Amino acid sequence: MKSASALSPNKRLDEFVAKFEPTNAKLIHECRAEIRKLLPTAVELVYDNYNFFVIGYSTTERASDCILSIAAAANGVGLSFYYGASLPDPHHLLLGNGKQNRFIRLPSVETLRSSGVLALINAAVAQAESPLPLQGGGHIVIKSISAKQRPRHPTSKAAAAHASPSSKRSPARE
Length: 174
Fold this sequence. Notes:
With about 170 residues, the chain is α+β, with helices and mostly antiparallel strands. About 30% of the residues lie in helices and about 20% in strands. Strand 3 (about 65-75) and strand 4 form a beta hairpin. The longest helix is centred in the first third of the chain and has 17 residues, at about 20-40.
């Protein structure tokens, strides 16, 4: 059996996603496939951190060139826009109130396919400081793996909070 470091970046990414409950794992895979279709030349920057599993879509291998990312935790999946505060949002889809980042919750891949979200993605790509390459294929870079992580499956307390309509927690802000 290969050690984790000997596995390909794609296999390692699959191992990270496998930590999630099947519903969230499937959604992560579906959202990743959808974003790869939209941004085929983007570099995927992967972080398996304490709070979140994140796949950033960047014009280079530098995190500061990230355009958007999939952020997943036990309580769900979100789409985070690195410079979302400056995006036009006529439909008021973006959540958050920080100086820079904004996000959208993704209860299904259909949300990602909606015209409003696609317009936000296109606007984010257009405002990127470094443009995406015009040709070639993107690749995966495993940027960090935290030894200690929050559970990727909801606990009974987290599941109750996620089911509650008054819950304000989100994958991109926890």
